[in-house]
Design goal:
Distance between the termini: 34 Å
Number of helices: 2
Largest sheet: 3 strands, antiparallel
Number of domains: 1
Strand order of the largest sheet: 2-1-3
Structural class: alpha+beta
Helix content: 10-25%
């Protein structure tokens, strides 16, 4: 048996979202070549908790993460009205080793996974787009 050590095993990014009753309140993220996915997600969650998102009915949870030493990361946000007339805010996190456009598509896919009522025609904005 041969074991291979790869520096990329401890590299990555993660984002976390604070929610209340399905509505997203805030998002935080951590991304660095020397950051593990688990550590990045933990730090992102801690940032939200330190901002006070731990009140009754609020939930801070990991939304997305990836184990890549270098990647494009895109954070998207949407605010829309649901079929029942409620205003909703949702976020998406996306990553790609190839391009910002691919990371944006991944962020929209992530947003859709967490916000079933959202459709692309309801619109969104790119909050952050960067390479780490």
């Amino acid at each position: 048996m041969t074991l291979i050590w790869a520096d990329d095993a401890m590299a990555g990014a993660g984002c976390a979202v604070a929610k209340r009753l399905g509505n997203s309140l805030a998002i935080e993220w951590v991304a660095a070549p020397d950051e593990s996915v688990e550590s990045a997600i933990h730090k992102a969650k801690q940032k939200l908790i330190e901002q006070g998102y731990r009140k009754k009915g609020q939930d801070v949870h990991a939304q997305a993460g990836i184990g890549l030493r270098h990647a494009h990361m895109v954070i998207v946000k949407t605010t829309y009205t649901t079929m029942t007339g409620r205003t909703r805010t949702s976020y998406g996190c996306g990553y790609s080793p190839r391009s910002a456009a691919e990371a944006e598509r991944a962020a929209l896919y992530d947003l859709r996974n967490y916000s079933w009522g959202w459709k692309p025609e309801l619109g969104y904005e790119v909050l952050q787009s960067f390479r780490y």
